[in-house]
Design goal:
Strand content: 15-25%
Distance between the termini: 71 Å
Number of helices: 18
Shape: globular
Radius of gyration: 29 Å
Strand order of the largest sheet: 8-9-12-11-10
Largest sheet: 5 strands, antiparallel
Helix content: 25-40%
Number of strands: 22
Length: 676
């Protein structure tokens, strides 16, 4: 949308100046003119790029908002004195080529056998390619799309343990047979005489090539209906491409490091000779790279002269480990929408989070689940839901589910679902939940939370501007030490955001322990009833009457009931986490108190340098045209190989035979000792 005389049209854009009937295409009611502009895609634009597929108008005086997955152009189309404000909305979808979808499956895995502490989940393939594996027909002039990084979370061992998946999805061209595709015209004509016996001898070269492909190539596996859907008719102007994914599974959410490593692996399949095989890099990374520890908190891995990785020791907190990015939560939703999300999740509403960025989707969904601490989400939770599990959206109970925004190109969400669009910072509440707004939250606690989030939001914007300028420099100019410092700053901001939400939860539950009822007999169905464990009515009376509606909804949730049960009985939940939260509720009135902060006392800048892997004796250069691996080359380096797989970055850090205390427990013990 452009205001004539006040703005300049973009260089590669065109303006709609006339209607089909020849009238002036001014969309404003007043004398000043407003026109709509558009840009057309280049012929060489990659398939699956985002393009505008739908537009609509909304009238604000009727309370209209942008439909699901639509973006609003914040320029009023009605500049007149009368009438409602009118805004243009547009929807972007992927420009999908003709394709056939299949159920994905595992082509290869390493190691081939499971670790005792790490069983291979059967559902990995479905989460690596949540929209399904596809064969797509593209114009040959189209450029290949860039690889897409995604993350997902799997729960195993009765939801007691999490596995974090990091995947990079890309396309490979399907060549029916190299010997066929590279044939000279004369050879094709010779072949033509063999396969066109009794048929029209005037067939063109593409038709002949298609017959060869259908007889000898991948197309022979497709039925007639699938071939018609692909519309693959000319091998000289069209190409077949199949989606693939490379994935790393870990008990640790080192998403940034894994993204760089997967991108590096994919870049090696470029048709050029590689002195070190891809297989060598994989076994080296999974088996030979040590896990960060207090003695070696920073691991620097040099993969090539340009590519490098860093691993830093995770913060030892009393809170559960997760793949959450609170920075992404705040940056994509802003302070007010973060508070609305908090209200929705605390009252156990149906929440559907969606984005076209799958890695952001998972990290934000994990953050939403984490801001509940000390509560734990008790209902269905799938941060990145594959298309094959979409029926869970019709479940008659609350859920927290993330989906790719392309889901809305195929299905409409149920009418009772609240949708959160991370790409447009838009939350659409279902009809019967429109009464839910942040004014329901306790006033003082929500004001402190909002002020804290706004301050951090400004810090994040400033940090992003600095990082953008640094990215413009070459990788060599950005030293490893600066990279570690940047990581430290990001960790600090993560804890600041988490601390703000923790402060809110501690303030609204302050004094809850006074209403726990004594246990008089062994647990039975009756004694685990919340009314026999917690004096709900007395607790509600102790809260401000202005917020009675919020508290009455909170105490009826499954997670509150579960929290009271875990607080009353010895449970599998981390008791250190509960004790930590209890201390937070006791200290909430202290001035300038910080519950979560980086522990600088134990911080060390000692860095372990890991050189690139050695190709080994007599290793010939290997050429990878596609990402196809040779199991015989998967051999860890004996010089660095660890006997205990749990010691590498791939496994779980080993436990001590003695009970291990968290840093918080150590601090509490030291504080108690000083008092004595």
């Amino acid at each position: 949308v452009i205001y004539e005389g006040k703005e300049r049209i973009m260089q590669d854009a065109e303006m709609i100046v006339e209607t089909p009937m020849g009238h002036v295409a001014n969309i404003n009611n007043s004398t000043s003119k407003i026109f709509v502009t558009y840009r057309r895609a280049n012929r060489k634009m990659s398939c699956n790029s985002l393009v505008v597929t739908d537009i609509c108008l909304i009238l604000t005086n009727k309370g209209e908002v942008a439909p699901q997955a639509f973006c609003t152009i914040n320029k009023n189309l009605n500049k007149g004195m009368l009438g409602s404000d009118v805004y243009l909305c547009y929807k972007k979808s992927m420009d999908r080529a003709n394709l056939i979808s299949f159920k994905p499956s595992i082509l290869y895995r390493y190691p081939m056998t499971d670790y005792n502490s790490f069983c291979f989940p059967n559902s990995v393939a479905m989460f690596c390619l949540p929209m399904g594996a596809t064969i797509e027909c593209w114009p040959k002039v189209a450029s290949k799309p860039k690889p897409v990084f995604s993350t997902f979370v799997l729960t195993v061992a009765d939801a007691a343990q999490k596995i974090y998946g990091s995947a990079i999805t890309f396309y490979e061209e399907v060549l029916p047979d190299p010997s066929i595709t590279n044939m000279e015209p004369l050879e094709i004509m010779d072949k033509k005489s063999e396969i066109t016996d009794g048929e029209n001898i005037t067939e063109t070269k593409p038709q002949v090539k298609m017959k060869i492909f259908k007889k000898f190539g991948v197309l022979k596996r497709l039925n007639l209906g699938q071939l018609e859907k692909l519309q693959y008719t000319d091998p000289e102007t069209q190409s077949l491409n199949i989606s693939k994914s490379i994935c790393i599974l870990s008990h640790w959410p080192f998403f940034d490091t894994f993204e760089k490593f997967l991108g590096f692996l994919h870049s090696l399949a470029n048709g050029k000779p590689q002195n070190v095989p891809i297989e060598k890099y994989i076994s080296y990374f999974l088996c030979d790279i040590p896990f960060p520890s207090p003695q070696r908190p920073r691991i620097f891995v040099q993969l090539s002269t340009v590519d490098r990785l860093i691993l830093t020791q995770p913060e030892d907190l009393a809170l559960p480990r997760s793949g959450a990015s609170f920075r992404q939560l705040l940056m994509n939703l802003g302070p007010e929408n973060c508070m609305l999300i908090l209200l929705l999740i605390l009252t156990e509403q149906k929440l559907l989070v969606h984005s076209l960025r799958p890695d952001v989707l998972t990290s934000v969904s994990e953050a939403i689940a984490m801001i509940l601490f000390p509560f734990k989400w008790q209902c269905p939770y799938i941060p990145l839901c594959p298309l094959g599990l979409a029926e869970v959206l019709h479940a008659p109970l609350p859920f927290l589910i993330g989906v790719d925004s392309r889901f809305f190109d195929l299905y409409d969400p149920p009418s009772d679902v609240n949708c959160v669009n991370l790409d447009t910072n838009n939350i659409i509440l279902c009809e019967d939940k429109r009464h839910l707004n942040i004014k329901l939250l306790p006033k003082k606690s929500s004001r402190i939370l909002k002020n804290g989030l706004e301050v951090i939001y400004a810090k994040l914007n400033s940090l992003n501007r600095i990082q953008s300028s640094q990215r413009e420099k070459s990788n060599e100019d950005f030293s490893a030490d600066k990279e570690f410092q940047q990581k430290r700053k990001e960790q600090g901001l993560e804890l600041e955001i988490q601390d703000s939400f923790l402060r809110f939860m501690a303030s609204i539950l302050k004094g809850y322990r006074s209403y726990l009822l004594p246990i008089t007999k062994a647990p039975t169905v009756g004694t685990t009833d919340p009314t026999s464990l917690f004096n709900i009515q007395a607790f509600l009376r102790s809260r401000d009457k202005a917020h009675a509606k919020f508290y009455s909804m909170l105490v009826r949730t499954q997670m509150f009931i579960r929290f009271i049960e875990e607080r009353s009985f010895v449970s599998d939940m981390d008791m250190a986490g509960l004790a930590f939260f209890d201390e937070c509720t006791e200290r909430i009135e202290e001035e300038n108190v910080t519950f979560l902060e980086l522990d600088e006392s134990q911080h060390s800048e000692r860095t372990v340098f890991i050189p690139p892997p050695d190709p080994g004796p007599n290793q010939q250069p290997v050429i990878y045209k596609t990402f196809k691996l040779n199991p015989d080359l998967m051999k860890p380096q004996k010089s660095l190989s660890l006997k205990n797989p749990a010691l590498c970055a791939f496994g779980i850090t080993p436990g001590s035979p003695m009970a291990r205390r968290t840093k918080h427990e150590i601090k509490v013990a030291q504080r108690m000792a000083r008092k004595q």
